């Protein structure tokens, strides 16, 4: 029973990075921009969060904010490539990942931030739920865990219940028609890239500042790619993405619990499990739903403004 309680209590720690990264990707892709650079942006957020925490003497809230800003700033490079230079969005996303992997690895070594512990945030308890048997630990988490559903709610309201969200959807479905209606397509896409990337950067900072509480090169460990798969699994729905993030969080949280209980698992099987589940989910989604009605109509297509007469 203690093992189950510990497993349940650790699920949010693994689920929140998936959730925030997937939400950021949905914000970007709702405007028709295919975003494959989540892995790199999470690394930028992770490194920037640790660096900011070390330089500010443990000001964790400022570290998270600066991590978001760093990821948003780096995303301008991606915006330049896909919006101005009109580089293929798949190639641009992959290039961003490789660039960020090299950049964060280099800076982490040069600035000597590797394996330097930070304080993180103190866990808060939601009484009386924290006193419940078995599931009580689920309600003793760092504040960002409890803030994440509120972030989802705010983004859903913007995307589905506001003029801004309606315009974002128009830009993602038919950018030429949106442009003819006077909507600045490139402006909306650039703003979505920056805003979504800030959420992705926050996901990376969660891993380094609040979970492991130190920087290790390539510490994101493929979670950005799993977030990309989550968006497809969720059919670009934020709430479904949150549910998928919890599912993957359950799987990842189970692995260390099994190891702690003495169950011996092959090392490479442990490393393979999240990706095998991701592959299985994508195959299931492909077989279960062959229509693309929920996918933004212009996803991955560059916008070329037509001359007006």
TrEMBL record:
CDD domains assigned: TM_PBP1_transp_TpRbsC_like
GO cellular component terms given for this protein: plasma membrane
Main localization (coarse): membrane
Source superkingdom: Bacteria
InterPro entries cross-referenced by the UniProt entry: ABC_transp_permease
GO molecular function list: transmembrane transporter activity
Transmembrane stretches, start-end: 6-26, 33-55, 61-83, 90-111, 138-159, 186-209, 215-234, 241-259, 265-287
Protein name: ABC transporter permease
Pfam families on file: BPD_transp_2
Key words, A-Z: Cell membrane, Membrane, Transmembrane, Transmembrane helix
Membrane topology (UniProt): Multi-pass membrane protein
Subcellular location: Cell inner membrane
């Amino acid at each position: 029973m203690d093992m189950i309680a510990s497993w349940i209590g650790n699920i949010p720690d693994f689920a929140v990075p998936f959730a925030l990264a997937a939400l950021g990707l949905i914000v970007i892709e709702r405007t028709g921009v295919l975003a494959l650079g989540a892995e790199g942006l999470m690394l930028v957020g992770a490194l920037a969060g640790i660096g900011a925490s070390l330089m500010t003497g443990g000001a964790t809230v400022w570290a998270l904010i600066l991590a978001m800003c760093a990821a948003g700033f780096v995303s301008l490079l991606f915006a330049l490539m896909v919006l101005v230079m009109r580089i293929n969005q798949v190639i641009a996303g992959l290039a961003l990942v490789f660039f960020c992997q090299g950049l964060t690895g280099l800076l982490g070594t040069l600035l000597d931030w590797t394996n330097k512990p930070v304080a993180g945030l103190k866990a808060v308890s939601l009484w009386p739920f924290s006193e419940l048997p078995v599931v009580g630990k689920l309600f003793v988490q760092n504040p960002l865990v409890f803030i994440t559903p509120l972030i989802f709610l705010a983004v859903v309201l913007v995307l589905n219940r506001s003029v801004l969200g309606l315009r974002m959807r128009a830009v993602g479905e038919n950018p030429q028609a949106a442009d003819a209606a006077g909507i600045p397509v490139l402006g909306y896409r650039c703003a979505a890239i920056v805003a979504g990337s800030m959420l992705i950067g926050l996901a990376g900072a969660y891993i380094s500042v609040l979970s492991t509480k130190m920087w290790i090169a390539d510490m994101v460990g493929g979670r950005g790619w799993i977030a990309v798969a989550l968006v497809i699994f969720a059919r670009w729905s934020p709430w479904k993405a949150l549910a998928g993030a919890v599912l993957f969080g359950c799987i990842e949280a189970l692995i260390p619990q099994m190891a702690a209980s003495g169950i011996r698992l092959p090392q490479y099987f442990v490393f393979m499990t999240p990706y095998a589940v991701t592959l299985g989910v994508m195959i299931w989604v492909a077989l279960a739903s062959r229509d693309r009605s929920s996918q933004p109509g212009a996803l991955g297509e560059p916008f070329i403004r037509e001359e007006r007469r």
